[in-house]
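Check the record.
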Amino acid sequence: MKNARTAAHAALLQVDVNAGYSNIVIDKAIKEADLDQRDASLAAAIFYGVLERRITLDYIINQFSKVKVNKMKPVIRTI
């Protein structure tokens, strides 16, 4: 069984790479990870929180990272 953070990361990566619909992607990730209700809620909160704050997060990363967000591998950016 995966944990909530791993499921959220997998879902965010799926949205970044394949541009899937967010609600379908997170539902699938939660089912594949076989999460209980509490962990599923945490995974969804992380997932939607990152999507909501993506522009702000990218700005902050660009301020402190030598590698800009648009040049990062999707796996690294999602982490």
